[in-house]
Amino acid sequence: MDLEARKYHFIKELFSIDRESIIDTLERVLKREKEEHQEVSTDLKNELDSRLESYKNNPNNILDWQDVKNDW
Q1: What are the pLDDT digits (tens) for 37-69?
Q2: How many angstroms separate the CA atoms of 50 and 60, rounded?
Q3: DSSP secondary structure letters along 31-42
């Protein structure tokens, strides 16, 4: 059975479920799977690389967390 057929079959099975606890479990599994396989965008990777490089070039150019926290 190909993926599209499996999805269709799964959706049909969902409509026959009459216990909310099963739906809750399926939702948790789907959420966990999405979170585990979430990709970091290229823009974010570039920003992180830039910040890491900046830190490597000048490790003393940092802010104290207490100072930042007090300024907010």
Answers
A1: 888 889 999 999 999 999 999 999 888 899 899
A2: 16
A3: HHHHHHTPPPPH
